[in-house]
Amino acid sequence: MTDDTTEVRLNEAAHRYEIFVGGERAGHSQFRDNDGVRTFFHTEIDPKQEGRGLGGRLVRGALDQTRAAGLEVIPECEFVARFIEKHEEYADLVAAA
Question: Is residue 1 part of a domain?
Fold first, then answer.
């Protein structure tokens, strides 16, 4: 039996959120912060872990933690941008142009 427990953690030193499955890192979403805005510019999931919905769980966790930190978002990463388009509850996080 495998441990499919997932956890999204902020790795401040690397400027990214990481998703762990059963204690092992399975992907990350990189960002940069500037004046209260967190710009997500790259997201990837380990190819061995693709097709399990981990990208969505990673982005949801990253956006939830970003909201809790009181920051706005610029979704330069296409994956993050598509996620926000599909999940209207995150639209209010997007910084005004």
Answer: no
Q: What is the end-to-end Cα distance of the chain in Å, rounded?
A: 48
Q: Domain range holding 40?
A: 6-93
Residue 41 included in any domain: yes
Are residues 11 and 17 in contact, defined by beta-carbon separation less than 8 angstroms?
yes
Q: What is the CATH number of the domain that holds 10?
A: 3.40.630.30
Which backbone phi and psi does 17 adopt, to 5 degrees?
A: -100, 140
pLDDT in tens, 39-96: 999 999 999 999 999 999 999 999 999 999 999 999 999 999 999 999 999 999 999 8
